[in-house]
Amino acid sequence: MDQIKVMLVEDDAVWRDQLTSFLSREHDLVVVGSAANREDAVHLARLSDAHVVLMDLILSDNGYDGLEAAMDILEIKQTKIIMLTGIDEEEAIMDTYAAGAVNYVTKAHFEDIPCAIRAAYNNLNYIHPDSAGVLVKEFRRMKREQRSKQLTSAEQEILRFIHKGYKQSNIQSKLHATESTIKKHVNRILKKLGTRSSREAARKAKRLGIID
Question: Helices marked H in 34-89 — which ranges?
Fold first, then answer.
């Protein structure tokens, strides 16, 4: 069986040694190099034939410089980068995937690292549970935002009134609009949301987060 070559980027020498020792117990994994900072990581990446780079998110006191190192490496060559960190923050997770990394594993789940490396090597879309929930949440937010943009502010306002139980005559009065104008808005709403009635549309808009 071919061995998967791994490059480590970690500023903590103790953790780097522990991780190297841990990975050496896996028959199909081999550490082919390590670096402790952004500059050395980029230099080593140019020379290394590693299949997967295991990159610490924070290499110094200068923010997420591990993320910057990952982007630098990806500009040089196509390789699989897994971010490894003690931080479990939504922003860090989203930034990781946006930068081109294939996975994000926290150090609290040390035992999951070999599985993540194998998945990356084999081009499997394995997303660690650390980040799966965050990605689902972001996807839902983006879909809500996308749907809300489909409706004008007037249409969203009408849906809010409908959801609160207002009758059409009351809505006309509140918005100082004619009956035909409200009907036109409602017809457009039904078409955009794919519903048959205004109340169904209001319930769907509420469920999707389009209206509060």
Answer: 38-47, 65-76
